[in-house]
Amino acid sequence: MFCLFYNKSKMKKIVVIGCGVAGMSATMYAIKNGYNVDIYEKNNYIGGRCFSFFDEKKYNTLKKICGKNVDKNLFYLDNGQHLISGAYTYFFELLDWIGTKSLIINKNKLKVNFIDTEFDRKYIVDFKNIFKLLSTKYITAKDKINLIYFFIYLLKNENKLAKHTILDVCKKTKLNDFCIEKIISPIVVSIMNSAINIAPASLFANTIKIILSDRKNGLILTYCKKNFADLFAPFISKINENCNLFLNTKVTDFFVENNICKGIILSDGSVHLADKVIATIPPNDYSKIKKTCENSQHFLNSAILSAYIWTGENLNLNHEYNAIIGTYIDWIFDMNAQNNDEKTLYQYRITTSNFNKFNNKISENFKEIAGNIKEIIEAELEIIFKKKIKLYAIHIINQPAATPLITMQNNKLRPNSKTSIQNLYIAGDWTNTGLPACIESAAMSGYLAVKELK
Ligand SMILES: Cc1cc2nc3c(=O)[nH]c(=O)nc-3n(C[C@H](O)[C@H](O)[C@H](O)COP(=O)(O)OP(=O)(O)OC[C@H]3O[C@@H](n4cnc5c(N)ncnc54)[C@H](O)[C@@H]3O)c2cc1C
To answer: What is the Cα–Cα distance from 347 to 345, expressed in whole angstroms?
Structure first.
């Protein structure tokens, strides 16, 4: 951990805009380096895109169907299934500091149950070690060799990747359609929330490198025991001494004189002075404040659709992570897979990453799609489980702006923390961290921004 200076008598005031992962991370590093921090967050909660809520309506409905003893915890929902890799170093440093690292469940090395609806077959891909991986059913010896070559090519040709998408590398290494569509594409969509024909190979290579460099934890997928609101809640008491957190407070402009940022301006017109300002807001919000700078206008969003379903029957998935091939549904998460107790109510989480493909294909009209989603999910569940699944309830969360879409073109335009305005810095998952737009990128960007403060 770097240390800039620590001088209590000359504590400098930093304003952090936004209290998502990047904002919390920037705050932590700023406090660790002896700064005084004021955080301004437009929402009435912290966590940004990792937010949680209680679905009271569904809880009350399901109590009527299943009886009063229904597990209330099944109705505390996150806005999506946030998967965390064991190699998320910066994010774990943040949780450690907040004091909630113990809420993260470490699963053993990643084991994914693939359900291929097209060929009507299931197979486990076990990432425990290379031998387990190579013993995967239905992949021919030739395809296995090509896959190994694909990953070696990615890792060994850093300087040749700059101009290539992941699909280019697939073609270069002669992967066939089976490997591209059924192995590489699901991995890429989950890691990068983007399609292989637009996602930069260099970012994918960086991610694989980080995962492989941490031999102990890299391939461990973790998830939160409760929900993300619980992970972040103690942040507020943790920062009490050195910080002021202003919720429900939207920053509308930077206060800049002679190209030096001297503070921020709020919607009521009031000016709040600071020595340095770190904006940790997504590109859309950023471009509303600062229309033409920091390339924020080049970032479209990638959507994620999540759905929670409650049913009276055990779907017998037997695995936490189920990758579904041949449907719009990419994943079904079953967090109770190892618990065989008979229950009256089962909850499953469904995710469609890179939901843009869905939006574009079905209709341009968002409301129209929203009306269809429930029926589409029900129809796809019937395909996956080969029978009609009676759903007690379904909660659909469509996040059109889940992550900034990182493409070949805009990857080069991701801004560094230091801006063209003196004393104004930026952070956030979309900034130049070398990672896909994810939780770790957000946490790392907070570190990078504070590192730039002088
Ligand atoms: C459904 C879903 C699933 C995801 N799944 C995963 C996953 O499995 N793994 C993973 O690693 N990542 C995942 N992500 C991505 C991850 O959530 C984000 O990359 C990360 O949370 C971004 O953090 P951030 O701090 O950069 O931005 P944000 O979380 O967007 O934080 C920005 C904050 O700034 C505030 N703000 C904006 N404008 C202003 C303003 N003018 N004034 C004051 N405050 C303002 C916002 O309210 C917000 O709180 C997922 C995202 C979604 C939506």
So the answer is: 7
CB neighbours of residue 140 within 10 Å: 11
How many angstroms separate the alpha carbon of residue 287 from the centre of ligand 1?
16
Rounded Cα–Cα distance for residues 229 and 372 (Å): 30
Q: Is the pTM of this model over 0.85?
A: yes
Closest residue CA from atom 12 of ligand 1: 438
Express each pLDDT in 235-276 by its tens digit. Answer: 999 998 889 999 999 999 999 999 999 999 999 999 999 999
pLDDT at 343 over 70: yes
pLDDT at 58: 96
Domains with residue ranges and CATH for the chain: 9-46+234-299+406-452 (3.50.50.60), 53-81+100-107+222-227+300-404 (3.90.660), 130-214 (no CATH)
Which pLDDT tens digit goes with each residue over 191-208?
888 889 999 999 999 998
Name the closest-CA residue to atom 49, ligand 1.
48
Residue nearest to atom 51 of ligand 1 (CA): 402
Spell 65-94 as b/e; 16+ CB within 10 A means b. ebeeebeeebbebbbbbbbbbbbbbbbbbb
Name all residues whose Cβ lies below 6 A of ligand 1: 17-23, 40-43, 48-50, 79-80, 82-83, 250-251, 280-282, 285, 304, 306, 399, 402-403, 428-429, 437-440, 442
How many A from CA of 20 to the centre of ligand 1?
Answer: 6
